[in-house]
Specification:
Elements: H1 2-38, E1 44-45, E2 48-49, E3 74-78, E4 84-86, H2 88-93, E5 97-104, E6 110-119, H3 120-127, E7 135-140, E8 145-149, H4 150-155, E9 159-164, E10 167-168, E11 178-179, E12 193-199
The ligand Nc1nc2c(c(=O)[nH]1)N[C@H]1C(S)=C(S)[C@@H](COP(=O)(O)O)O[C@H]1N2 binds at residues 56-61, 103, 105, 140, 142, 144, 173-174, 186-187, 189-192.
Pfam families: Oxidored_molyb
Domain Oxidoreductase molybdopterin-binding: 63-207
Organism: Methanohalobium evestigatum (strain ATCC BAA-1072 / DSM 3721 / NBRC 107634 / OCM 161 / Z-7303)
Length: 223
């Protein structure tokens, strides 16, 4: 009898460990990918054929960083009046903008997608931007960084995308946010953004430090 009780207790403990493990890992790890799978991808928008997500090429320096969306905050700091941290839900609650834009990597490939997200202008209106600020640096969860001029970002109403082809940005594609740096090479399209710093200094990001052009115009040279 004693032996059977021990066996019984053992299986109860194993079962509890397995079961609680499932419960606790479900929300943060499958949140976006499950939603993405259940959403229908848009194939054509305003007469333009979009590249299906599974046919889009991608590029990253070291794989997909692990981001827990419950604790995720987008920090905006530097030369602002009020530094602020935004949750994913807050970001999605502002009016959104959609654009059909090509992403061109310096490796020679490109694709066309519909990007939906929040204009940087909306966030900068919340934080306020100091008068002499000139540049904006984007820092990502995988250690990547890049920068762009404040005027470029404002004049072109540049957005932070949380959807691609009307599907939640997949985890391996930059979830929760990718910068849609239209008319700039792909290395300016920071993914997995966690921090945005406003400054009056020029800044060389990951690829720029390795010799790539800091202006990165698709129409111009890449070095
Ligand atoms: N955080 C982060 N963002 C990044 C990169 C990266 O390695 N890390 N690679 C850049 C490069 S070189 C390109 S071409 C685009 C590719 O975006 P995609 O994977 O969505 O196609 O992401 C850019 N943004
Ligand atoms: Mo790239």
């Amino acid at each position: 009898m004693g032996f059977l009780k021990i066996i019984y207790a053992f299986f109860c403990v194993v079962f509890l460990i397995l079961f609680s493990g499932c419960l606790s890992s479900t929300p943060s790890n499958t949140y976006d990918t499950e939603i993405s799978r259940n959403q229908t991808e848009t194939k054509n928008y305003q007469g333009v054929d979009l590249t299906p997500i599974d046919q889009q090429q991608t590029r990253d320096i070291k794989g997909t960083p692990n981001i827990n969306i419950e604790s995720y905050r987008l920090q905006i700091n530097g030369m602002v009046e009020n530094p602020e941290n935004f949750t994913y839900e807050q970001i999605k609650s502002y009016p959104n903008v959609s654009k059909v834009i090509d992403l061109n990597c310096v490796e020679g490939w490109s694709f066309t997608a519909k990007w939906t997200g929040i204009p940087l202008k909306t966030l900068f209106n919340e934080t306020g931007v100091k008068d002499n600020a000139t540049n904006v640096v984007f820092y990502s969860a995988d250690g990547y960084s890049t920068s762009l001029k404040l005027d470029y970002l404002m004049d072109n109403n540049i957005i932070l995308a949380y959807k691609i082809n009307d599907v939640i940005l997949p985890r391996d594609r930059g979830f929760p946010l990718q910068l849609v740096a239209e008319s700039k090479y792909g290395y300016k399209w920071a993914k997995w953004i966690t921090e945005i710093e406003i400054t009056n200094q020029s800044y060389e990001g990951y690829w720029e430090k390795r010799g790539y052009s800091n202006s990165a115009n698709v129409s111009g040279p890449s070095f």
